[in-house]
Amino acid sequence: MNNNTNINPFEVYKFIIKHLRTIRLKIKWIPYSQIKNLRKIAEGGFSIVHKATLVDGSSDRDVAIKKLPYGVIMCYGITQDPVTKEYMLIMDYAEGGDLHSYLKKNFINITWNDKLNIIEGISFGLLSIHSNNYIHRDFHSGNILSLYGQIDYWRIGDLGLSQPANNTLSNNEIYGVLPYIAPEIFKGGTFSKETDIYSFGMIMWELTTGCKPFANIEHNYELVYKIIDGKRPEITNDTPECFANLMKECWDSNPSKRPTIDEIYDFVSNWKIMCSLFYGITLIEIIEEFKQAEERRLELIQLKKLGPEFNE
């Protein structure tokens, strides 16, 4: 790597993972305690640049430090086990665990307003990735993490398979959790921003049920063929029409008909704003959809017809 200050943090991350075994002697572990006077100096499309003082015991020097933005699990640096000599990335600790576990534990208490908060945070994280022309490639509820176990603090993690969206030379072997994989991948297609959007649609559905898509179906070639033929999970009765329509657009069999993450983020943010306006002077129909959806959700919960244990 050269001294180009515009190097993307994802490229640095991928470089370390790819070349770790061959550059052990060239990587220096820097304890975070040696970084002093951290202050922001610039912000780019995908990272925030800080200036800091690196204290190394003999002399102090000014250094530049890049951090990933809100929405993606932070990677603070690298260290090494003194016994095994294994290298380790130092990242944010997700105290609340992953989204799937969170839903299974808290589903009956998660209101539709809560669901909008969660999906807005997830869409912002994916927007951060796509806006820098990267794709995730392994996007599912197990890779969406809660920093503090609260509704508002969700981050996207496990970027080990991420790559530039225009990387036509990459290995396109099928990765990931089967129900979240777009049908074109099973037909030999390439991973893309659109395949991430398909996965996003499945995550939207998981928010409505509390369980993973096709959890009660064996994950085999038969399911793959059904997905290729257009099989999708059944939408619950308490799902607002606007939410259901966006979800179905995300998992459209034709990648070109799927919305972009910019469009999704705008939709979800607007819904969230509208549902927080008690006077509801604009777009009353959408507000009413979510109000009725919350009433149906509570009714289905009481009738024991909605929740992870009734879908899996």
TrEMBL record:
What the entry lists under PROSITE patterns is as follows: PROTEIN_KINASE_DOM
Q: Does the record carry Kinase as a key word?
A: yes
Which PANTHER family does this chain map to? Answer: SERINE/THREONINE-PROTEIN KINASE TNNI3K-RELATED, SERINE_THREONINE-PROTEIN KINASE VIK
Single GO molecular function: ATP binding
Tell me what this protein is called: Kinase-like protein
Q: Which SUPFAM superfamilies does the protein's record reference?
A: Protein kinase-like (PK-like)
Q: Tell me which UniProt keywords the record has, alphabetically.
A: Kinase, Transferase
| Biological source species | Rhizophagus irregularis
Q: Which Pfam families match?
A: PK_Tyr_Ser-Thr
Per UniProt, residues of the Protein kinase domain are 35-268
